[in-house]
What does this fold into?
Amino acid sequence: MTEINPTCRFCRKTLTIPIPDDERLGAMVVKLSANACCDRCADFRRWWRDTTDAMQAITFQLTSDKSNELRARVRGMVERMCTGMVQKAEDYYLMHGLQPYVPEFVACIMDHPDKVKWQAKLFLDRVAAMAYEVHHRPRPATITLPANQNA
Ligand SMILES: [Zn+2]
It folds into this structure.
């Protein structure tokens, strides 16, 4: 049995996928490996999707019932979920200091309760861009001072 080494489509980590001996099955695995991702990315993305699905189900109630009591209860749940999502995004992208963005995230979701998935995607895209900036920013060039001529 041979193996191929595609990269994770999200984090570019090198993966190892065994190729079955059957020719057609092997060709299919090779073709599908273009979309492969590592366990860490898969776990995070699945958790994020499940959480946004759950939040969508909660905020969906606001489309039919606009009472202040329900709105306050939903807001409490959304705040707790957003705090958890921001924490999870910090862990995944190896960043910290994102908690101040929680109120803005909650406000976006409460303003558009029917577009939770879209708001969550926008938020995650922003965090990914910030993480890219933080982790890939070129380091300042080291400055070599000329040797002191007078010494
Ligand atoms: Zn990955």
Q: What stands out?
A: Strands lie at 2-4, 17-19. Helices lie at 23-32, 39-59, 68-92, 102-111, 116-136. The two ends are 68 Å apart (CA to CA). Residues 15 and 40 are 12 Å apart (CA to CA).
